[in-house]
Write a structure and sequence with these properties.
The chain has 422 residues and is of the alpha/beta class. The protein contains 19 helices and 12 strands. It has 2 domains: 280 residues, Rossmann fold (3-Layer(aba) Sandwich); 108 residues, Fumarate Reductase Iron-sulfur Protein, Chain B, domain 2 (Orthogonal Bundle), CATH 1.10.1060.
């Protein structure tokens, strides 16, 4: 990672400008939303529920699978990203148009590799803008934070021949109308999920309304979700959605919570069940491992408590400087922990494993009080055992062993040539 090059890039400079305004608005909203709940009690409930869920993962997974299949949802299990894509290819024929919702797990399985065989329509406003600008999202909730409105309208005019006033509402209106036309042509909808209850419900939250369309207008709906999303009950799933909204966007509730327990159906004709009324006729769920069981077995289970609200990113001093360069598909400390067990220690090392300052700001804001810095320390220990260290780290440790301090030989009144944080 070339930090100097990253820090002076125009992309990162623009991201910082957009982030400052977004962070100010987020804090105003969050400060208001958090007053509507008993924060301490909600954190306690979330933590206990996730601890129980991960501890009883296999049992809850079997229950969820059984209850969803009874309701007509076809459930698959994928061992890794490649396996998940293979299953999707079996479900979705080549050449079909696919309406896709914003999803971290779809990024994780590298869903863009399907673009050579299927048209993937990004239906989230931010993801769509990032795609047409040939960019990469820098935040899981607000992916287009680094794009100026001037650049957006310039790209829309150049790519689509539409001249739009440089105002957020004008851009949103054009994007909405354009995407509705694309969604209406799709036979398949593709989404992630925020929670899956063992009693047989799949919860997906949203604010824009695009996911409601993606899950209902196409004939078939494919859902990909990590196995850690499974919780005991639908009440637990809704609690996660509420927490994701408060900590993720600073709003009391998301605009919509989609609860899916079966394909669309009607029993209005002599009480006979007929599937595929106004919504999807077929629903598929792919439960993804991709290193999650490995994390559980290696003492990194706390990383699986994460609900992907993205709140920690607002307060991470490293993420605020280099954004999506700090992690792979998931960012900051928690993102590096996930990268380690999903993609391997070397990739985590290359994507900033030693950049974390272990300041614990992430733990302070996290609704589950996940200690990202402790996870990073555990992973660094594993990395050192594999001889994955930076030159600076090696030199600092060598100095400590030799002189008792990380700076090396010290002379009174003289500032060391190289300064290291210990």
């Amino acid at each position: 990672m070339n930090l100097n090059k990253i820090l002076i890039s125009e992309r990162i400079d623009q991201a910082k400008k957009g982030f400052r305004e977004s962070f100010s608005n987020y804090m105003k909203n969050f400060s208001s939303a958090i007053k509507t709940i008993d924060e301490k009690e909600m954190k306690k409930k979330l933590r206990e529920m996730k601890e129980y869920s991960i501890k009883n993962l296999e049992k809850l997974k079997d229950e969820a699978k059984k209850n969803l299949e009874v309701q007509g949802i076809k459930v698959f299990e994928a061992k890794d990203a490649k396996d998940a894509r293979k299953i999707i290819k079996k479900i979705i024929p080549k050449g079909e148009i696919v309406a896709k919702a914003k999803s971290n797990v779809l990024n994780e399985i590298e869903i863009e590799k399907l673009k050579s065989r299927n048209e993937l329509v990004e239906t989230d406003c931010g993801d769509f803008l990032v795609e047409i600008c040939r960019e990469k999202g820098v935040h899981p909730v607000i992916p287009a934070i680094h794009l100026s409105i001037e650049k957006i309208v310039e790209i829309i005019e150049k790519k689509f021949g539409e001249k739009i006033e440089a105002k957020a509402e004008k851009v949103a209106e054009w994007v909405k109308n354009y995407l509705k036309g694309k969604i209406s042509k799709a036979k398949f909808g593709l989404t992630g999920a925020n929670a899956i209850s063992a009693d047989g419900n799949i919860a997906i939250l949203e604010n824009e309304g695009n996911i409601s369309l993606v899950t209902k207008l196409p004939e078939k709906h494919v859902i990909v979700a990590g196995i850690e999303k499974i919780v005991p009950s639908v009440e637990d799933a809704i609690l996660i959605c509420k927490a994701s909204s408060i900590w993720g966007t600073g709003t009391i509730w998301p605009a919509y919570i989609n609860l899916i327990s079966s394909p669309s159906k009607t029993v209005d004709i002599q009480k006979e069940i007929v599937y595929g009324m106004h919504g999807a006729k077929e629903v598929y769920l792919i439960l993804l491992d991709n290193g999650r069981r490995k994390a559980l077995n290696e003492g990194l289970e706390e990383a699986l408590y994460c609900i992907n609200c993205g709140a920690c990113l607002y307060f991470c001093p490293v993420y605020r400087q280099i954004f999506d360069n700090f992690g792979l598909n998931y960012f900051a400390g928690i993102g590096l922990a996930k990268t380690a067990f999903m993609n391997g220690l070397r990739i985590a090392f290359e994507k900033g494993l030693y950049c974390c300052t272990t300041c614990k700001a992430c733990k302070q804001i996290c609704p589950l009080e996940i200690d990202g810095s402790e996870l990073i320390k555990k992973i660094r220990q594993k990395a050192v055992e594999k001889k994955l260290e930076t030159k600076a780290n090696k030199k600092m440790v060598g100095n400590v062993k030799k002189t008792g301090n990380p700076f090396g030989e010290m002379k009174e009144g003289k500032i060391p040539k190289e300064l290291y944080c210990c």
